[in-house]
Request: fold
Amino acid sequence: MTEKVKTVCVGRFLVDVPANAEVSLSHQMMDGFAVDTVEESETSFSTRLAAREAEIRSRGGATDGTGGMVEASDLRVGGMSGRHFVYGLNRGYWMEGDRRVDDEFVSFEAHAHTAGLSFTLSRKVADAADVKLAEALLARLQLRGNDEVPAVAGFCIGRALFAEPLPPHNTEHVVMHLGLPGHPDIGMAFASLPGGRSARSLLTRLADMDADAGADEMLRVTKLRTGKRDINDFPGEESLERVREFNFATTFGFVWETEGVKDDPLQPFLSLELHAGISPEPGGKPVDSSLHEDAVLALWEAISSSIRLRPNGPPASNPPAEPPGPKLGAAAIAGDICPQSGWWQCREGGPGLDVHGGQVQYIRKGERMPQALLLPRQTLWQKVRRVQPSMESPRLTAWTLVDKRMRPRVTSVVSLAQASPPSVGFEPIGAEPRAAVGTYVRTGEACPASGWWRCEEVHALDGTRWFARGSMLPVATFQVPPGVFGKADGPDVIQRRSLWQLMRQVEAPAMTQAVPLPGAGLPPGEPPPLA
Reply:
């Protein structure tokens, strides 16, 4: 059975299986979108798509998630035909302490067809930004043969590949199912899921199960092999058991797992399972394994030892890499040539003294760093005359790089959610920081270190903001494009929970003045003024 094998691409991994094995992939997911594939003609696709659109439009206008169409439009992906549907508007709220936060979301589907293959990307809880994200993912799809191993980097699904470079994401999910002709009692499954999320390892779970099992049950189980096992540089744990069932059938259950690393698609959680003695009848009693113990072990060894990370070839479209530039925290002086496009913060300004354009400004590479223009607070008479006094500092303005995004954000008049101030009794500002650069914290959790935190939601208006240690990180704010909810009186913005990543620790100085807390007369996202 293992003399002739074929190689199967599962997500980012390769597995060798018997040449006559029946292989299928399921539970395909990319960045929160469930992915379904169907082989059909363009005519069948158009008929099915029209029926789906009519079914959604036939629903009412409820706002509890059961309502009908909010928006439907044609897909804008080259080489593909199709449409996307936004439907099932759901309005609700959640509590942040004693404060009520209104929330609003929809369901979303993107249907695409190309070269006899249809794809559906769907999400039960979505927002306006997901429309563009789905199209960006569909644009990275490449078709492949049933047993073809792609030459480019990416994530394999049934008959296709999400080719690199992909939009930033941290969710990839796929499961391979394997059956053997002539052996209906034997089944195998290989799963690749986001890693680093399991609280208990395989051996820990098995030890707990054995502790709860009765003496009779333990007598029926023979542990053929249990312990740690590394497979091609992936550390894991393994358990191989032979079971004498109540009906005296002999069955086998083998499993191997590796925990993986959180948010690393090249080190996901991997699980391989083999079961022999499964009843061919749904709900039927176990049957004797159709393979002898030695054959089951040989099959397990051949397949499990072949699991390996697929070599990453050149990306499908390899854009020229930008030469390395200054790191976050780099400094420049007014009059210097800007070395890196991005957001730069100046040290000027303070209580009663604003900076024209803001303390944080977007400056393009090659431009001259500006001298900050200071705007003192207007007197009552100046307000009446609409006069704004201005002044320049006698010293050159110092700028610090705080965000390396390659394009300026659109100025928004939307008020961003504020971080709640540190609770009474929280450790003082001068205490030792409790987070390393790169640390992730969720909305509603206490900020472990003062500094600049980047919102991980790509389309959020928040970007990179400064938060004080101990403050509760806020929700992310999203602007809703006109017409996405199908009526003029829809909300301008929606807010939802997010991840925040620490980009740079910046402790507010406390030597010469008291440091005001966020929200105490400061613009959203701005640090306390420097002494």
